[in-house]
User: Fold this.
Amino acid sequence: MIKKLAAEAIGTAFLLVAVVGSGIMAETLTGDDALALLANAIATGAALYVLITTLGPVSGAHFNPAVTLAMAICRRIPAGEGLAYVAVQIIAGVLGVWLTHFMFEADIVQLSMKARAGWPQLGSEVLATFGLVFFIFMAVRYRGEAVAATVALYITGAYWFTASTSFANPAVTIARSLTDTFSGIAPGDAPGFIAAQLAGAVIAAGVASWLIREN
Assistant:
């Protein structure tokens, strides 16, 4: 269990370093929001592939409370273990953001000022998280060796085809509310995103379980 939690902590922290760090670097080097988003998406997708490939055999490589919730609903992880995963994911995500601020010589403690509000944004997060969880379940069932590529490619694409740029992760949302950089989200908008993400995960777990059920 300790090794599983350590893997979740390392993976989630590095995921936030990738998301926030690439956002800072892209914003610093370009004056073009589209180019910055492209760099942000590619870096995040690449990091996800590495993290899931290497840490998946240890913990399952959730790095995401929405994924953990879906797995618990479908009894693929015990509830107690799931709660421990979520706690570690949230703490590690925040630490990952602080480490990124340190690397880029920014104030360690920040609050985002970037507004991401409104029903279209919330609906986007339902869709983004539904897709992430649904395709994880389908890949695990039919193409287990392709889970890392599935998640990495989906998130890279979803940065562009969702209005919210596909946070799809409550731990990432909390952590990104603590960075006033390219990838941030205002703390007041984070609860709505998290509720939408959890709703998307629950729906996806139900649909995927029905689809792959053999009787």
Observations:
- The mean pLDDT is 97.
- The first helix runs from residue 2 to 29.
- The two ends are 33 Å apart (CA to CA).
